[in-house]
Specification:
Blueprint (H helix, E strand, L loop, with lengths): L3 H8 L4 H7 L4 E5 L19 H11 L3 E3 L33 H13 L11 H21 L2 H9 L4 H13 L10 H4 L3 H10 L1 H27 L3 E6 L8 H5 L4 E2 L2 E5 L9 E2 L4 E2 L1 H6 L3 H10 L5 E4 L8 E5 L12 E3 L6 H14 L4 E4 L7 H10 L3 E4 L4 E2 L5 E2 L9 E4 L8 H7 L3 E3 H11 L3 H8 L9 E3 L7 H8 L7 H10 L2 H8 L12 H12 L5 E5 H5 L33 H6 L3 H10 L4
Parallel strand pairs: 1-2, 1-18, 2-3, 3-8, 8-11, 12-15, 15-18
Antiparallel strand pairs: 4-7, 5-6, 5-9, 9-10, 13-14, 16-17
Helix pairs in contact: 4-5, 5-10, 7-10
Length: 607
Amino acid sequence: MDFSLEEKALAASASGAKWGAIGVKRRAGVLAPLFSLYSSQSAGAGDINDLRLLVDWCSFTGNSILQLLPMNELGAVFCPYDSISSFALEPFYYSFSGDGRSASGYIRVLRKKFPAEAPRVDYNLKWDKLSFLWEMFLEKGKADTAGASFSSFRENNLYWLKDFALFKVLKYYSQGKAWHDWDDVYRRRDKEALSRFEREHRGETLFQEWLQWRLFEQMTAVKKYAVDKGVLLKGDLPILVSRDSADVWAHPEFFKLDSAAGAPPDMYCAKGQRWGMPVYDWGRIEADGYRYLKEKLRYARNFYDLLRVDHVVGLFRIWSIPYGDPPENQGLHGSFDPSDENFWGEHGRKILSVMLENTDMLLCAEDLGVIPRVCTETLRDYGIPGNDVQRWSKDWDARHDFLPPEEQRFPAVTMLSTHDTTNFAAWWENEAGTVDEGLFMRKCYEKGIDYGYIKGLLFDPVLSRHGRLRWLQGMRDPGALASVLGRSMNEVGDILKMHADTYGEKDKFWAQLGLSGVPTEKADPGLARQALALNLRSRAVFCVQTLLDWFYPAGILREDPYGYRLNTPGTVGPQNWSLKMPLPLEELVKHEFNTVIKEMIAGSGRA
C-alpha cells in the first residue's frame, strides 16, 4: 500500500510538528496495565520499575509503542478512569527496588503478604506500602526535602501539588469522607482554616509532596530508559475526574456538580452507562484561560511521548445525567451537553486546538461508540489518530461487513480489543454473531412484542450466553425475521438493522482471514494468530494490541478466555481492574513466542 499522500497530510496538519518529532511511520505497540504485571522483584504487584522489563520486551519484539492505562491516584473503587487527581501519581505503583537496605526488608514483607503471582490484585497492598513509605520519609525525608530536586519539583507544580497534599490529609482526618461532607470551613476552602490546618499537619502534607516527587523521579527515569531503547511511552488522559477529587475540591467552579457523566444507550450497552463523575463547565475553564487543561498536559509531558485522549467525543458533547436520577437507570435519562448540536463542532475544535497548542505530545483519540461526523472530521483535519477496533471496523451502511485492511483509515490506532472489551478469543466464542440481550428485550417491549415467546424462535439457546443472543443459523432472511416478530419490516427497521450488522459475523470474519469451510466455534491459538496478522496489515498508522491478545496465540492463556477481562463497562466490582497476567515479566521477556511476534511485526512493515 502507498501511504505517501496520507503521510503528507499528517505532516501538514495541526499535529504536523508532533508527527515530525516521532516520524510518520506505521508502528506496532502494546497496551499493558501496570497493575496486571509483576516480576520477581515486585513488591506484591507491578510497580514502576517493572516497566523496564516490558520496555525490553517491546524493544526485542519490534513494538515501538508502550501504552499504559491512567497512572493517576485511584479513588475508592480503584478505577483508573475515576481518579482523585488529574496530576498525582498512584503510590500503589511505587517501586522500593534500589531504595536501600530498609527497602529490601519492605519488599520481603510485602511479597510474603501479597504474592505477586496471585490471579487478582489485592489493593490493600497500597496501605501497607504507604505505611512503609511513611517510615522511609521519617528516615530520609528531611534530607530529601532540603535538596534542590525536591524544591524544583514543588516550584514547577505549584498549581496542583499543595491542594492535592491538603486534600489527602484532610480526607484522612475526616475519616475518609468525601470532601463535600467535610466540616464547612474545609469544604468551602476557608483560607484561614486551611492555613491553620496546614501548619498543624505540616509533616503529613510534606509527606504527600515528597511521595509525589519520588514517584515523579521514578517515572521520568523509566521514560528515559524507554527513549534509549527506542520505545515511545503512551499515556492516557481520562476525560473526567472523580467527584470526590482534589481537582473538584480545589476548583468546584470548573464542574457542573448537579450532573453525572455517562454514555447513551447503544447496541452494546442497552441502558447506556453512568460513570458518576461531574461534567466540566467549559465556560468557566475558558474564562480562566484553560489553565487547568494546560497544566494537566504540561505535567503528563514529563512521562509520555504520546497521549490518548479518553472519550474525545466528550469534548464536543457529553452525555449528562441528572445527579439525582436513580443509579439503576444507568444512562437512560441523560441528554447531551451542549444540547445544541450546531454548537458541537465549534466546542470540540476550540478545546482540541488549545490542547494541540500547549503540548508537544502526539495526541491520539479514543473515538469509539456513536460519534458525530463533526468529531471524526475534526480529528482527521487536525491529524489526530482515532481508535479502530477490528470487530467494529465495518461498512455499517451497505455491506454490513468487516472492512478489509486496505480500506481502514490511515490516521488511526487499530487493535483487536481494548481494556473495556473481551479479548479476541472471548469475542469469537461468545459475542461474534450476537446482539445484546438487554437491548433486544427493550426493543421488543417498545414494540409490544412478546420477547419470551420469540426468543426461542430467533436465537440459539446453547450459544447464547453472557448476556448475548446468538442468531439461529437459519435466521438469515430479513423478511422471515419480521414475520417471526409479527410486524412489518418498517415497524421493526431498527431490529433488522441490528440483524444486518451482526448476523453471520463469524462467516464474514472467517472470509476476511482468507479461510474456507465452516468457521470453528472455538478460537484456537492459530486463529488468534491469524487475526493478529490481519490487524497488523491494516493501513492504520499505529497497531496497538493488548498483552492478552498476544498471550492467547502464544499458548499462555489456558483457561476459558472469557475470564481474562480487565473491565466490564457499566459494572463495579472486584472483577474489574484486578486481573493479573499469568506469568512474570522475566518469563515474558524470554518466551519462545517472542520471535514469532518479532517476525509478524517485521513482516507487516511496522518494525
